[in-house]
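debug: dumping io for the single-chain case to check the tokenizer round-trip. Nothing else runs in this session.
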Amino acid sequence: METITISSKRGVAAFAVSALWASPAFAHVKWFSEPAPDSSPGMPEISTMMIVGTLLVAGLLLAKIVDTMAHQFSLTPRRLYSRSTRPLRLVYYLIAIYFLGAAITNTFLAPHIRVPESVLYAGVAVQLVIYSGLLLDRGRGLCAFLIVLLFIVAGVSDPLFVVEYPLLLALAWIVLFADERPSPLGLLLVRFLLGFSLVTLAFTEKLNDPMRALSLLEQHDFNFMARAGLNYSDRLFVYSAGLVELLIGLVLLAGWVTRLTVSVLFMFMIATNSYFFSIGEHYMGWVELIGHLPIFACGILLLFYQPAPEARKASVNRRGGKATVPTAPDRLR
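debug: decoded output
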């Protein structure tokens, strides 16, 4: 693995501390949600459900068409730094800062996880150990074990956490087994569990129960569609965000145009954070940025290391020799 200088490590730590020190809590992939008083979510109108369903089917069909064209005509550019260890090091740094943020804000993985005080203190210490180990590239096996341990404890406290954040398990696998580059199995787990997390959160936070997201929109004017002068209600805005999240998750699960899908996901997350800062909600901007770091980590792995179909297809020569892998340049999926 490539090494970094002590000064660069201190720079990463200083940036993370300065960004998070004043923040009491942070979010993860919950773009527009926060705890709200219990209330009946109600069922969306039939017309809304039909529109959401139609747009979802149209989006999936479009993704499949683009994926087929990319395979047939090699429309996309070559794989990015596939032989470099730098993207993997960046992934470790992002995961480290994520756990540092949780530790500094006295959070056990996620703000909504409630554990006994003694368990919380132990969790904070464990998260600091993970941060230190990943930043210094030491004891990655221990770090992976501790990530899984924290995940199990959080799942016991909130069983829904297990289906909302399984991407943490994929990152633990990468930390444990990735040396110079992640293996195909590791990338498959990252793609599948990231997609599964997005699909689950689309339903639990927006489509099935939009009340928490609506409560947040009542307190903060984040509906940029309405601010742009469009007749766009807060409920429609929440359903739209959920639809995008659901569509991206399903396309990742299907394995279609993976890199393009990740790029779209990054675009939405960066746009969200930029909008928070543009309207003066700097706290929410930092909250969302730090909370999205595990997704950025997964996306970077898929952008830089996802194998292209041409690299996985083996061909047998005319003399019946052993199967060989074509040496043609890999293409972006």
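debug: round-trip ok. The chain has one domain: 50-309.
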